[in-house]
Structure formats: C-alpha cells, structure tokens
Amino acid sequence: MSAEATNPEAAPTDVTVRRRGRARIDLRRLGRAALLNATAGPAPRDRLPDAISHVAEAHRAHHPEADLTVLGRAYVLAESSHRGQFRKSGEPYITHPLAVTLILAELGAETTTLTASLLHDTVEDTEVTLDQVRREFGDEVAYLVDGVTKVEKIDYGAAAEPETFRKMLVATGSDVRVMSIKLADRLHNMRTLGVMRPEKQARIAKVTRDVLIPLAERLGVQALKTELEDLVFAILHPEEYGTTRALIADNPGADDALGAVAEQVTAVLREAGIGAEVLVRPRHFVSVHRARLKRGELRGCDFGRLLVLVAEDADCYAVLGELHTCFTPVISEFKDFIAAPKFNLYQSLHTAIAAPDGAVAEVLIRTHRMHKVAEAGVVALGNPHVGQESDTAGSQADDGERVDPTRPGWLSRLLDWQQSAPDPDTFWTSLRADLAEDDEITVFRADGSAPGTISLPAGASCVDAAYAQHGEAAHTCLGARVNGRLAPLSTVLGDGDTVQLLLAQDAVSGPSPEWLDHARTPAARIAITGWLRAHPESAAPPAPTDPRPQVSIPADRRSGAELHADLDGEQPAAVRPAGCCTPVPPDEITGFRVRGGSVTVHRARCSAVDAMRGLGREPVTVRWGDTPQGRVTLVAESFGRPGLLADLTEAIATFGAAVVSANVEPPSEQRVRHTYTLHLPDVTGLAALMRAMRDVPGVYDVSRAHPSRGAS
Prior knowledge:
By secondary structure, this protein is of the alpha+beta class.
C-alpha cells in the first residue's frame, strides 16, 4: 500500500485540523508552475516566482514582516540547479524542496530555515557547493544545509546511513533547525513513498518509526510526528490500518457527538465570563487504533478530543475549575503538564468530563502559545541564536562549535555517548535503544553543585545517574543515597528523587558485569562495556567465598576507663563497662549488679537498661573516674573493596587506638558492616576518630553500637 494513498482527506490528521481545512498543495501543479518559471525566464524583481507564492503566503501568515527576497533568490538557485532532475513519481525534482519548505512554513519556521530548506538537496544532488551557498546566503544557511547533507556512500559503504544520522545529530546539537528540516524532508518522502518497491517502503518506514518519529516527539513537533505515525502504520501494519480506517468511516457521527459536548462547554465558559475557543480535534489513525486496544468498543466521543484555547496560563486553571464543577470529572484522566511540562516543551492540562447524557470526552486546555509549541515544537522557537552577540562565549564552545542555548538535556546526553561509540553498528543500535525510551525523569543532585539536576530516561537506575553525572569517573562508584537513604546501585529512580553518588577515592575500583543489568542509558552501557573489555579479569567469576559467617580478631583484654560505683560502702568485685553499648566518658551512665558481685555500666539510653528495670533490677549509681582512657564499640558501614580492612585499621592506629576485637560480616549487595571494639588512650578524641574512619574511601557511615545490639 502506497504512503500517498494512505493519507486520505476523509480522515484528517491533527495537521489538517490545525490548518483549518487548507487543501494540500498539488505537486503536479507545483511542477507545472516550476517548468513555466524556467521557460519564461526569471520573475520580475518586484514579485516572487509563481511556484513559491504559496510558501510566501504561508510564511507571511506567521511572520507578516518577513523579507521574502531571500526566499526568491533561494528558489531561483534551487530550481536552476535541479532543472532536468525528476523524482521517481515523475514530478520535477524542485517540487520536493518546495513541498518540504511549505511544511515548515505552515509550522511557522522563520526565513532562514525556509531558505535552507529550499536548498537542502542542492549540495548533495547538484553542482552547487557549500561555499557557494555560504557566499550567497551566509553562514547560518550554509550550516543548516550542510547538517542535512548525507555523507558519501562511496566513502562509508553500508555505514553511510548511521553515519549520516550521526552527522545530523551532531549538527542538531548546535542548531535544532537541522533536524526540523530533516523531519519535514522525511514527511514529504513518506507521503510520496508509493512509487517505491514494497521492500524499500518497509525499510524506510522502519527507520522512520525507530529514529525519526522518536526525534519528532522529543523535539515536540507533534504535527509532523502524528502524520509520520499514520504513514508508517499504513505501510508496516496494513491490516490494522485498514480496520482502523473502516472504523472511522463507519462512525461518521463522531464529530457530531463531540460537537454537542463542545457546545455545552462553550456555554459554561461563556456564562463564567472566560474567553475561550472550543474546538473538536479528531484523533489521527494511530491514536484511534491505540484507543481501541485500550478501551475495546469505541463510542462517538472516543474518536476525538476537545481542545480549549485561552489567552493566559491562569485561564487554563479557571477553565479546569468550571469543567470540574459543571460536569462530572474523570479524575484518573487529569494531568497537569503546565506546572510540570514534558521534556519536549509540551504544556497543557488534560482532563476528561462526563456530559449529562453520559458521553465522556477528553479535554485539552492550553493557551494559544502553548498550542503553537505543542504543534510545532522547536520549529516554533525560531532561531535559537537570536539575541546572542556573535563574539560572546554563549554562542561558541571552546572548540569553535556553535552551541544552541535551547539544546534539550536528552540531546546533550546523546551527543556525549555517541563520541564513545565510534563503531557505526554500536552507534546505530544504541541510538535506536535510546530513542525507544518514551519518557524522561529529572533527579536532583544532593551535593548542590551546578547543574543541580540530571535528566534521565524513565526507568533509569543509580548506575545511569552515576555515568550521567561523573562520566568515566563513575567506574569507581560504590553506592548511592536516594532521598537521604542508602540504596544499591540497582535502585530504579523516580521523577524528583534526590541522588548522592558515593565514589571511591582510588582508581582500583571498577564496574562489575552486573552493572549492565541495571544500566538503561547508552552512555552507561558503552562506558561499562569498554571498561570490562579493558579489564577482562574483572569479568571473571569470583572465587568461592569462605562459608564462615564472620572474621574475628582476638580480643585484647586491657582495662577501660576508670569507673566507680556507690554501694553504700560495699566494695563491688568489679565495675566494668557493658559490652553491648561500651560507654565512654562523658556518656551519661547507669549501673546494675550482676552475678559475682560485679557491676556492669551501660549508657543511660541503652535498651538493656529498660530490660533490667523490667526484671526488677535496681540501678546502681555510677560515675566516671579521672582516667581519660576508655573502651568503645564502633560500627562502620561501607562498600566492599580490596584493602578496605587495612585502610580502616590504619586510620584507627593513627589515633593511637588499639583494636580489642573486630567482626567483619559477609558482604550483602556490595555493602559490608565492620564492628570494632577499641581501647582509646583518650576518649575525648572519639569524635575525631569517627570522622577519620568516615574519610576512608568506601565508608559511608560510622556510629556507636546500634540500638538493635543493645545501645542507644
């Protein structure tokens, strides 16, 4: 089934609705006009050639003050250079750049983009050179034309297509208008794909589905994305397309059902004094197909949505309040993309209401400005470099490359990881996987450094956040804190989470093969794979571990701090600190008699104190003596790495503390717990010792004996 035949006017897409019924330009008429221009000679200086007059009309609708002279000059160069070339469908080749330019003009593209669009195939398919374009139209136009020019197949062979996309994406990183032209170019090619062999149609449609449609979504160009989806749907899924088309044809009253609800909404808003335009917005084919899969049998209102356009942001919420007051809202359908815009600039309020007759209609509420951006995305933003001084640091990077100040975060990530994927196959596979992610989340950096946020695809883990923030330095990542709590690297992050990545200070640590199971972003996967290839010994299975539950160091029985007990003149056999909480000066303490006439001393908030009182034991008054030494139990929480035990004991020894006993529990999710009972020559240095232990790479917390072990 041809792409040209699968875009019927009987089922208008979002683009058609937005154009308010403007008929598509007849390519054969364009071709005849182009030929007449060529035979009649150049147009008079005071008017444009007839073949481009419709482009000028669409352009002036968005930019009334635009200078059209440059468009006329670009058309003359394009027509003369393509003269004698024909498309496979038989039309003069000039009809293609004209149609592409018309698509962009109707989306509101500015003059520079339209000029480059008219010339976008000249350098690739004619004798025109890039230097000639630069001399006649300037650096901006030359940059855009070069960005969409394919690499030579004779130089790249089978890698020509992925390398062409790599080139376009790198150019898009400096100016998003490059990809705008490419999307319009692909849309027109898809519209006229019917002259191709079925297998070539399918190949082009698959690349469009996997790469161009996700790029259109990410750049927010919904008007192009929806039509591309329908054209791909018709080619790759002809049976489902036919069923959907028949379903739409069998429900001609769908617009009437939505129109009735639209009239009720209009009356409610008029009575409330809210100036608004209420439009019926039919769903495109793919949207109807998805709705049918989700809901089963479709009713009249399911074939479209209501679009409410207002002047100000505040009016959007006023409309929402009136709709939820006067109709029954379907709360599960409410989404606020104004307060929290999508990563592709999209803003709107989404809701659904039930009319008195039971019909449920989805409603989109947005301002006229939001609607323009929702339809045209980055095209509506115009020239991203307008207002920048040419000699400022903001318009050029250190390497001389132009920098687009509106570059979205996902594009920056893509440009970063593509540098680590020199192999075309790796790049092509990673690009499709990256673009397959449908949504994006934002997480906040706990360290407060700029930028304060990290943008990641939905489903990303702490591994992805580590490589997004630290690059290859993330190889030494030991763990993370998510929202203030310790979390393994496999933790899947949610939108709005706060993340603190914990890195080792040595270069010995590296990623394990298991990290690949948790990495969603190409940047993380490419970096981990590269490190593992460079360190093959790290990918080998670990040696069998000792089944013993813990490692013990023999105890040193030296005495602790001096303690005294008041027993009404009775001399106790011994007064010693309890092993459960190991109190040290100046801890608040209490004591209890035990068998043998001794007194054990606990920290006042030790859980053992409550237990002793519960058994009816009477506390004994105890106090510290003048001796500064003491014994304490510390628990060090850390991530496992080679040499950690040695580094901790060295830190302890530096403070003159002696290890009385030490237990090292088996690792769990790369985390290790060390428990040390230490004899301190001066207990006033305890806080400094704990800080020194926390500074050991891999250690994220050091505390006194935990309450679950009987301490406070």
